[in-house]
Amino acid sequence: MKTPVIYFVLPCYNEEECLKNTYDRLNKKYDTLIADSLIDKKSRIVFVDDGSKDKTWQIIGKLASLNENTVGIKLAHNVGHQSALLAGLLFSKDYSDATISMDADLQDNLNVVDGFMKAYNDGNEIVYGVRGSRKTDTAFKRGTAQVFYKIMRSLGVDLVYNAADCRLMSKKALEQLAEYPEVNLFLRGLVPLIGLNSTTVEYERDKRIAGESKYPLKKMISFAWDGVTSFSVKPIRLVLGLGVLVSILSFVVMIYALVRWAIGQTVDGWAFTICSIWLVAGIQMISLGLIGEYIGKIYAETKRRPRYFIEKVIK
Ligand code: UDP
Ligand code: MG
């Protein structure tokens, strides 16, 4: 088997404090991989500058012009981690046999690459890096992440537990990923939809080497919300369910109100008012849920997701 051309893709947003160190460490790994004939000499390290406001692009430009194994891509403005990563992946797919994506702070321990290469050589098209203990993450980040994965599961979204965006994807997998035209990107949910042979490799996540997290709480919440709303119509169903529940309750309330009216325990008009409130509320909520069902269908249609991929044909 020929040694594969691997493109390492790293999205960078205001990472001037990390980049030099990241390059040195990754380049060392790169040299070892070449020496061990695990990757081809045409392999590259691709830095995607996601519209940084600091010196990130100047540093990337310098690295790319000085080193043959480095490529720099500058996005015109900040589009967020997911879109920046996708830009790097889709750029790389035409030149490589597979890509390995990592964060620019190299929190993902580089030894994971060995596991990736082994799994790839075993015939896997997608290899997910899965965080082991997450002991370097704050208790808060760990806790919220756990709740997030649980909620996503219960909403019926297929996620690989504790797998972030550190993964290997073959050319074939990338070509299929390119078929998804959606704008609200949530790669963690999208990649498992591709199918193909895949496996996971566990790794330890280190501390950020320098600078601070580009995912403050606000971005984390909006990322999680994107994940839910891009993949599930269950929240809409919840409204319909609630409507049915309120309608059923309204009959109970009606019986109660009628009984009190019949035994003369009510003031004039009370029973009528109470019954109307509950009945109308139930009908309104069911109607909202019904409209929601149609919106859910429209939402699924507008995504224009591919319906299937043919993996093999035997003739
Ligand atoms: N990032 C990006 N665009 C953004 C925010 C982040 O490209 O708008 C990159 C960032 O440079 C890093 C990766 O996304 O390479 C993950 O960010 P970070 O390490 O800050 O997240 P954390 O590890 O704290 O979840
Ligand atoms: Mg990080």
- Classified by CATH, the class of the largest domain is Alpha Beta
CATH-defined topology of the largest domain: Spore Coat Polysaccharide Biosynthesis Protein SpsA, Chain A
Low-pLDDT parts are: none
Order of helices and strands: EHEHEHEHEHEHHEHHH
Strand order of the largest sheet: 3-2-1-4-6-5-7
Helical residues, percent? 40-55%
**pLDDT averaged over residues:** 91
- Which class best fits the helix and strand makeup? alpha/beta
Bound molecules: uridine-5'-diphosphate, magnesium ion
What does the radius of gyration come to?
Answer: 26 Å
Number of structural units classed as domains: 2
- Overall shape: it is elongated
What is the overall number of helices?
A: 10
The CATH homologous superfamily name of the largest domain equals Spore Coat Polysaccharide Biosynthesis Protein SpsA, Chain A
How many strand elements? 7
